[in-house]
Write a structure and sequence with these properties.
71% of the residues lie in helices and 0% in strands. It is built from 19 helices and no strands. The protein is globular and about 70 Å long.
């Protein structure tokens, strides 16, 4: 009997398959992929369909191009995602008259989750295909993702989040859509929902990074709008996303920014407190400025050094970020030893000593 959970377990094990198990993989996919696709398309239980969509996404992430190498699989995958976004799968039919509920408002959480799972497949698909190959498909999906006027908050939030992740996955291939995406994210930033605003700010930052210098002429407008969210009673996740967006601007095109003005303000609002996933972007931007001997960044070292040391002991900060922090501190303490010692407490000095000793293998 077919079991989605067993399929997911096998898929998640893919990177560590034995030689014999790897040899079985094509046969396994030939049986399971059509069945998972059929469940997503025709099963009437939304919870089961959500599991099927999640399973498809996991296949894409683990196997990348391997799943879509078969044209039949690829075409079916495109149609399934399109059908869910258009509310045309079996589980999205009206339960009474068996017609497709294309424009019917359904407030159930499961309906939102269903669309979320389908939407989350698209960034994985863009990664698996590569941005350039994904471009014509994104053009077709875009009208289905952008929420129509009057849609509920959860749909607007999901749309902003999905588009942000697609921009991130497509990288520079998003440039032909940059004006359209800019309008979508700017509209989301003016929403009355903090969740929509936060996702839209994140999306704007990712779009800036992926578009390179394309959006540099808009930096003054962007900075003006983002600065309005930096207030003591503001939503902290949105503030963290603002810092992430500014960090992406500093990484992408620092010469187009008034660093003398924005960098001290940027540092003032650190560290991040809610969206820790933006940490690596924030500290990578700081690393870039210090590596280029940016005077404004150097002047902020008395504030930055103790702040970064404190983050080394923050359990919410991931290992990748801590490695980047240690890399920055290693360079700073070597070049500005006296400044470092004057800027930190004895406890912070001990934390720094242990971190550097670990890097140096002593």
């Amino acid at each position: 009997m077919f079991n989605i959970d067993d399929t997911r377990l096998f898929i998640n094990k893919t990177p560590s398959l034995t030689q014999d198990e790897s040899a079985m993989l094509p046969k396994f996919l030939a049986v399971c992929v059509p069945l998972v696709f059929d469940v997503a398309r025709s099963d009437k239980d939304r919870e089961i369909v959500c599991c099927a969509l999640e399973c498809i996404n996991e296949m894409l992430k683990e196997m990348k191009g391997g799943l879509i190498a078969e044209e039949e699989y690829f075409d079916s995958l495109i149609e399934i995602v399109k059908d869910v976004l258009q509310h045309k799968t079996a589980c999205q039919k009206d339960s009474e008259d068996d017609t497709f509920c294309d424009d019917v408002e359904d407030d159930s959480e499961l309906t939102t989750v269903l669309v979320d799972f389908a939407g989350s497949i698209l960034p994985s698909l863009a990664t698996a295909m590569g941005g350039q190959r994904f471009t014509p498909y994104f053009k077709n999906f875009l009208p289905l993702i952008i929420p129509k006027e009057g849609r509920k908050r959860s749909e607007r939030s999901l749309a902003a989040g999905t588009l942000a992740e697609i921009c991130q996955a497509m990288k520079e291939s998003i440039i032909p859509f940059s004006d359209n995406m800019y309008s979508v994210f700017m509209r989301g930033i003016k929403d009355n929902s903090e969740e929509v605003i936060s996702n839209s700010v994140f999306g704007l930052g990712v779009l800036i990074e992926s578009s390179g210098p394309t959006l540099a002429p808009r930096y003054p407008e962007i900075l003006g709008i983002l600065s309005t969210f930096l207030k003591q009673d503001g939503d902290r996740r949105t503030i963290d996303n603002v810092l992430g967006a500014v960090a992406r601007m500093m990484k992408t095109n620092p010469g187009s920014l008034p660093l003398d003005t924005i960098f001290p303000t940027f540092v003032k609002w650190l560290p991040l407190q809610e969206d820790y996933e933006e940490n690596i972007t924030v500290y990578s931007s700081i690393y870039g400025l210090l590596s280029s001997n940016c005077q404004v960044a150097i002047e902020q070292l008395p504030t930055l050094i103790p702040l970064m040391i404190t983050q080394l002991t923050n359990k919410k900060v991931d290992d990748e970020t801590k490695a980047k922090l240690t890399e920055i501190l290693q360079g700073v303490t070597s070049q500005y030893q006296d400044l470092t010692l004057k800027s930190i407490t004895s406890d912070q000095a001990e934390i720094l000593k242990q971190a550097l000793a670990h890097v140096n293998g002593s």
